[in-house]
Design a protein that fits this description.
The protein contains 10 helices and 8 strands. An 8-stranded parallel β-sheet has the order 7-6-5-4-3-2-1-8. The structure holds pyridoxal-5'-phosphate.
């Protein structure tokens, strides 16, 4: 497992998938998912020039990134895991992008905190495209209302995010997410992980969240 080599290989595959879809490679952002990975692998990725990372837990992310912030001022940290309202203050102070807005209560707590600190982070609304009871994300039918609430509250909603059900063909979920985004005038779609990021790019992903294919199994 050579992280530097993996980074090059994944970037090459992203480029190929973008070109195959007739898209500009600059329109597809790799989010390197560093959650639960040993620190030396993250150091290697930083040395290779990776600056956009995804973490799923606020506390783990604080441990990993709080001190590195000062060393790499161009870091862009995405929160990709469920956010509890009691972690909002820490999340808003550490992260640059919140990908997992999924309920009105969270919208209001986020908006209050962003107003307080004057930092309106770009947000994605997570959509539970597979309608799975155990999964975070708003139901497809609740999206229009949640989006209204978020926009009224002043949140800077830039796009939608989804995690398709494990073991299902992800393509219909990706297609649905991008259709919903474009229907609501949202430009960004965060979708696709190690196993399916090329499919996601074919369907319009602007952000792919890749962990194990870069850093190895967790
Ligand atoms: C862990 C995680 C990923 C990365 O998954 P891999 O299969 O390791 O690429 C992407 N998105 C979310 C929301 C995750 O929690």
């Amino acid at each position: 497992m050579n992280v530097a080599q993996n980074i090059t290989e994944i970037q090459t595959r992203i480029t190929a998938a973008a070109h195959a879809a007739g898209r500009n490679v600059g329109d597809v952002q790799l989010v390197a998912v560093s959650k639960m990975q040993p620190d030396e692998k993250i150091t290697t990725a930083l040395a290779a020039g990776v600056r956009v990372f995804g973490e799923n837990r606020v506390q783990d992310a604080q441990k990993r990134w709080a001190t590195r912030r000062g060393v790499y001022p161009d870091l862009v940290l995405h929160l990709i895991g469920p956010l509890q309202t009691n972690k909002v203050r820490d999340a808003v102070s550490l992260f640059d992008v919140i990908e997992t807005v999924d309920r009105p209560r969270l919208v209001h707590v986020l908006a209050d905190e962003m107003r307080r600190v004057g930092r309106w982070l770009p947000c994605f609304i997570q959509v539970n495209t597979g309608d799975e009871s155990q999964k975070a994300g708003c139901a497809v039918g609740e999206l229009p209302e949640l989006l209204n609430i978020a926009r009224d509250a002043g949140l800077n909603v830039v796009g939608l995010m989804c995690i398709p059900p494990v073991g299902e063909n992800p393509a219909p979920h990706f297609e649905l997410l991008c259709k919903l985004a474009s229907h609501h005038d949202l430009l960004e779609c965060s979708m696709g992980m190690s196993a399916d990021f090329e499919v996601a790019i074919a369907h319009g992903a602007t952000h792919v969240r890749v962990g194990s294919a870069l850093f190895g199994a967790r």
